[in-house]
Design brief:
It is a single chain. It contains 14 helices and no strands. It is mostly helical. Helix 1 crosses helix 11, helix 2 packs across helix 13 and helix 3 runs antiparallel to helix 7.
Length: 273
C-alpha cells in the first residue's frame, strides 16, 4: 500500500482517537501550556540557526530538567550563533554541562555548523527547501541527528505552524500500534510516521480546527495554517499521560484500539469490575 492509500485508511482512525483524547482535561491543559509558547522550543529565540541547535540539544532532557534546560537555551540565545561557533569546545562543554551528554552536544554544534556552511556552498536553503529533502539531508549529514532530530530542527527553525509533525520513539513504539499502523522499524520509522500524520492533518484540517473549538482548547492557530502543531501536541501528551509506563488502565487493551479508546469494555480497569 502506498503512502497516500495508507494515509486515507488511517485518517478516520486518527481523527477518532484525537477526538476522544483531546477531550481529556490533562491533555488539554498540557497542550494549552505548550502550544503558543512551547517550553522546549521557546518562541523568544529568533535566530533559526540557534533554533536548529536547540532542537538537537533538547534531546534526552527530562521533564524534571526543563527549568535547567531553559536556562541553557537562554544563555545560548544570548551568545548568538557567531559567538557560540567561535567558542572553544571546552567553553561549549561548560555551557551544556547541566544537560549531560556533553561530548555529544558539542559534536552536534560543530556538525550543525559544518552542515549549514555546506548548505550555503551548495545553494541549499534550509528554511525553504522541501521539508522531506531537508530532513533527509539533515539526518544524513549532522552528527547525532536522527530523523527525529531532523524533524524537530525543521519544525522549530521554520515555526510551529509550518506543517511538520515530529515523531519521537514513543509515538513509533506506543502510538502507532494503537492506531493499527505499521511504520516498520529502525530510524526511518520516524519519518514514515511523520509523513502519514502530516497527510492526515492536511486532509482533515478543517475538521481538526472545528475540534479545537469544540474541545475548548485555548490555542492560537493562524488562519492559513493546518493545525498540525496542535495535533502533534495532542498526540505527544496523550502518549506521555496515558501510554508511558505504567500504561493507564483506562486505555483500550486492543491493538488497534476500539473507537472508544478509553474506558471501554476492553480496558483493564473495566475488565476487573
Amino acid at each position: 500500500m502506498n503512502l497516500n492509500d495508507e494515509a486515507a485508511e488511517l485518517a478516520p482512525r486518527l481523527y477518532g482517537l484525537v477526538s476522544v483524547v483531546s477531550a481529556q482535561d490533562a491533555v488539554r491543559l498540557a497542550v494549552e501550556a505548550n502550544h503558543d509558547h512551547n517550553q522546549w522550543w521557546p518562541p523568544h529565540v529568533d535566530d533559526w540557526r540557534i533554533r536548529m541547535l536547540v532542537a538537537g540539544w533538547s534531546t534526552r532532557v527530562s521533564y524534571a530538567m526543563v527549568d535547567v534546560y531553559a536556562e541553557v537555551v537562554k544563555k545560548a540565545d544570548a551568545y548568538g550563533w557567531h559567538d557560540l561557533t567561535g567558542m572553544h569546545d571546552q567553553e561549549v562543554a561548560e555551557l551544556v554541562r547541566p544537560l549531560g551528554l556533553v561530548d555529544a552536544r558539542v559534536r552536534y554544534l560543530r556538525s550543525l555548523e559544518t552542515f549549514l556552511a555546506a548548505s550555503e556552498v551548495l545553494g541549499r536553503r534550509p528554511l525553504t527547501m522541501p521539508a522531506d529533502a531537508f530532513v533527509e539531508a539533515f539526518a544524513a549529514e549532522v552528527n547525532g541527528a536522527s530523523y527525529k532530530v531532523a524533524q524537530c530542527a525543521a519544525l522549530y527553525a521554520r515555526g510551529y505552524h509550518c506543517g511538520i509533525i515530529p515523531v519521537d520513539s514513543g509515538m513509533v513504539s506506543k502510538l502507532a500500534p494503537l492506531l493499527g499502523v505499521n511504520v516498520g522499524s529502525g530510524t526511518y520509522a520516524h519519518e514514515r510516521m511523520r509523513l502519514l500524520l502530516e497527510a492526515c492533518a492536511a486532509a482533515d484540517s478543517s475538521r481538526y480546527r472545528d475540534l479545537i473549538t469544540a474541545r475548548g482548547h485555548r490555542v492560537t492557530v493562524p488562519e492559513e495554517a493546518t493545525p498540525a502543531w496542535w495535533l502533534h501536541l495532542v498526540l505527544i501528551y496523550f502518549k506521555r499521560l496515558f501510554l508511558n509506563r505504567p500504561v493507564s488502565p483506562r486505555v483500550c487493551a486492543l491493538r488497534p484500539v476500539c473507537p472508544a479508546v478509553l474506558d471501554c469494555v476492553h480496558a483493564p480497569r473495566r475488565r476487573r469490575r
